[in-house]
Amino acid sequence: MSGPPRLNLNRPHGDGVARITLDRASHLNRLHREDLHALMAHFAALQSDPAVRALVITGSGRTFSSGFHLGELVEGAAAARDDPKLFERAVQALQALPMPTIARLNGSVYGGATDLALACDFRVGVHGMELRMPAARLGLHYYASGLQRAVERLGPSTAKRLFLLAEAVPAAELLRLGWLDRLVEPHGLDAEIDALTLALSSNAPLAVRAMKASLDEIAGGRADPQAMNDREARCAASADLREGLAAYAERRPPRFTGH
């Protein structure tokens, strides 16, 4: 099966974990403009859904994604000229989501998909995968927010290595550089993702969302002390804090509601 990214909120078991699958396995999950529009719609729906505790993005087949469909770039389609920032806007929308996001990297990641994964809060990869950002080999100057994100999250030296050398970087090196948060054997990927989503979804969602927003602002040099103080005050007055303290005192798992 091949088509736009699929969205599955996966609520039958009440885990609150949304999942998006890039589903063009026969073309290494390359991203067409229609896929980017689908992602934007998914992100818009998730943005206003307080029931979602975490989002997992993954690919079908043996590759996470080969990035933007360069054929559409070469063809110079009218749609591309009308909206040249579509890919950038989609990635920015992903980073702006209030809930924690996880890139489940089932295989290698190339081109713009490297930024899609980097926009997530966590990246879990598998042995045997690699990353390659070929912009310099193609004569492309990468979009500004993608370069900024790489410098913010990886530092300028690593960002220069990835963008200027355009070389393939193996999984173990990606872990050392901090691009990957965790690296597992392929057969252990689902167990690692389950453990991560369980940890995230078990914590107080109000505090998790508030601290994610504050941490992103600090990392991007956009720290607003008043906004952070407001988030702190809201959490301090929340039912979740009262529940967390009661659960700690009673030595039982907390039952958070996000209020």
Describe the model.
- The chain is built from 13 helices and ten strands.
- The mean pLDDT is 91.
- Helix content is 49%, strand content 15%.
- A hairpin with an 8-residue loop joins strand 1 and strand 2 (17-22).
- The protein starts with 5 loop residues before the first strand and ends in a 9-residue tail after the last helix.
- The chain has helices at residues 33-47, 70-75, 78-82, 86-95, 113-118, 135-138, 144-154, 156-164, 171-177, 189-202, 205-219, 225-236, 239-250, and strands at 6-8, 17-22, 54-59, 63-65, 101-104, 108-110, 122-126, 130-132, 169-170, 182-184.
- The chain has two domains: 6-200, Alpha-Beta Complex (2-enoyl-CoA Hydratase, Chain A, domain 1), CATH 3.90.226; 204-250.
- The protein is globular and about 60 Å long.
- It has a six-stranded mixed β-sheet with strand order 1-2-3-5-7-10, sandwiched between helices. A four-stranded mixed β-sheet has the order 4-6-8-9.
- With 259 residues, the protein is of the alpha/beta class.
- Helix 1 (33-47) packs parallel to helix 4 (86-95) and helix 11 (205-219) runs antiparallel to helix 12.
- The longest helix has 15 residues, at 33-47.
